[in-house]
Every structure is written in structure tokens, then in C-alpha cells.
What does this fold into?
Amino acid sequence: MLEKDDSSNQKNGFPHFMLKEIYEQPEAVRKTIGACLDRSGKVVLPPPSLCPEEIRALRKISIAASGSSRHAGLAGEFMLERMTCLPVEVDFASQYCYRDPIVGSHELTIVISQSGTTADTLAALHEAKKKGAKTLSICNVPDTPLTRDADANLLTFAGKENSIAATKSFTTQLTALFILSAHIAEVRGQSHASIDAAVRELRLLPQQIDQVLASDPQSLALAQQLFMFEDFMYIGRDIDYPIALEGALKLKEVSYIHAEGYPTGEIKHGPTALVDEKVPVVVLMTRDASDEASCLRYEKSLSSIRELIERGTRIVAVVTEGDDLIPKLTPYVVTIPDVPVLLQPILEVIPLQLLAYHIAVLRGRDVDRPRNLSKSVLVE
It folds into this structure.
């Protein structure tokens, strides 16, 4: 949407805009990265941005958003806290104003919206500004009420998204949040070798997304075995939990199947009572072998998955390439390339988008125009 593109209103041989836009994600992410990295690979945010003095003065970051954008914000919470060492709080934009948030002058409020016109998100922006916080929008459209009113902007380059369900706008928001986190970390002197290594990996993301898209036939095969079920559970630990939420939302939006997302460690605190052979569980089981905490989370999740399988539950797993253990436990497996932990969500969500799409098509749904939904919520 940042440049005129007559092809954005054409399906270009795809049966639906949603599938076309899923396949446009490598280019959308490439453009978003390209706008924020210089030739040496260093993060340099385009104006208008916060000045170094404002970034160094920060004591807290808040994020307000709705729907898929909030799920991106929840993943961004992990990125920001781990990379900047600042406390981060994520809110529903629709709740932000009404709870009378405590906001200080040395705080940054990030508002995330594909359209830049979402009423709740705009209200949250104005509330934060009124209380003295610096504000930054992450938005796909350059000239909107959100971008005009924010102190700084970080634009995504997803292009026009015709389908109501967010796909490429979501992955570019995740990309923008990672880039912003790396920039703040650098300015505040918090950057270190693992962050620098992840930033260097950024330019590989479009190619890695293409690799994930090549597994589309696997997603279709899974959908053909699962589309008749009426309830799903999505689970993930740590930064994977927001992606579980997003996967469940995608399935609900386009197929009208009931689906819920939970942290993997929470399912024993009640939700597992819902699980039986009639409720497939989609689990995010990726790991970064170079990250000790990631490996520990994997082992803990493995224990939970084995218990579910013993009860006859169908487990659908998104795993890292080279994982030869999970395929021995369940036949329903999709792989993604091995990337640093904080970049995993950008790849993990794509098989979940494809699964939701294919299930919805098999159930005869209008995937581009789901009932009762609109692209931008203009009133509360």
C-alpha cells in the first residue's frame, strides 16, 4: 500500500486473495527489512523516529493493539524485553483508555495497526499522548490518522491486503518489532553477540519464508485429514504462545471452527480437560539448539505432548528442520528452517496460516470475506 500496484487488486491466478497474500510474504518482509537496514546491515530507522536521547531516557514500553496486531505486540514484548532490558506491557487497545493507565513521561507507547484507522488503537494513542508518553506507530499505510498523530512511525511494506484475515501484514509487523527492538538495544548499549547474529540473519528471512511456503502441500494434506473437526487447541511456550493465539484466531476467522490458544505450560491448569480424541492440538515445538533456554522449553513441551498422545489426542506439530524426534511421535508435522529464537515467530505462523486457509476452503467458506468481519474496525 506504500506504492501504487495495480496487481494488488488481482488474484494473479490464485483462487483467493488470502492465499495470494500468504505467498506475497517473502517480498513484503524483504521490503520491510530493506527500509530499515543500511548497506552494512546495521539497523537505521527512517524518519520520523525517536532521537537517541529519547530512547536512552526510556524506562518502560507499552504496546496497544487489537486482533492480530495485538498478537504481534505480544511477540514483540519478548523481543523488546530480551533485547532492550526494558519492562514491556501489552494491552488490548479497547481496554487501554477505560482502565485509566498509569503513564509516565519517560515511557514509549507503541500502537500497532495495519490500516491506521482502527478506532480503539487511535483512542489508545491519544490517551498515551495526553498523559505524556512518547508514541510510535507500526502501520502499513503512510498517511493515516495513526501515523499523523504519533511522534514516530515505523512503516511496514505489506502492500494492499484485500483479504480480511491478516497474513502478510502480521509477518511484517513481527519483522518491524524485531528491527525496532534491535535499534533500541543498540542505542541503549544493550546489544550483544546473539542480537548482532540475529540481525545478520534478517536478510535471509525472505528466502526462509519461501522454504516454508514450499511445504504448502504438507499443510493441505494435514487440512484434508483435519477439516471435519469442530474444536482445536493451539499451544506454545514463551514467544511461541502469541503465535498459538494467532493460529487459533486465523482458524476461527476463516473456517468458523472453535479454536483456542494457550501457553503449553498452562494446559494442565484446566484446558486439558477439554482435550480428547475429537480435539486436535496444534503445538509449536521449534527450538534453537544454540539457546539453552530454548532447548529446556522444548524438553518440557515434549513431556506434555507425550501425555496428550497417550490419551489418543491428534498432535499437529510445527518443528525445526532436523528434528527427528517429533515425527516419531506424530505423523502430523510441518518443519521450518532453523533460525534464532526471536525470529522463529515470523516463520512459525506461516504453516498455521496455510492450515487455516485450506481447512476453510475444504469447508466451503468465503475465506476472503468471513461473516461479520471487516478489514478495519472504525467504531468501538
Q: What stands out?
A: The beta strands are 60-65, 88-92, 107-113, 134-139, 152-155, 231-236, 258-263, 281-284, 315-320, 332-336. The first strand starts at residue 60 and ends at 65. DSSP finds 15 helices and ten strands in the chain. The chain has a mean pLDDT of 94.
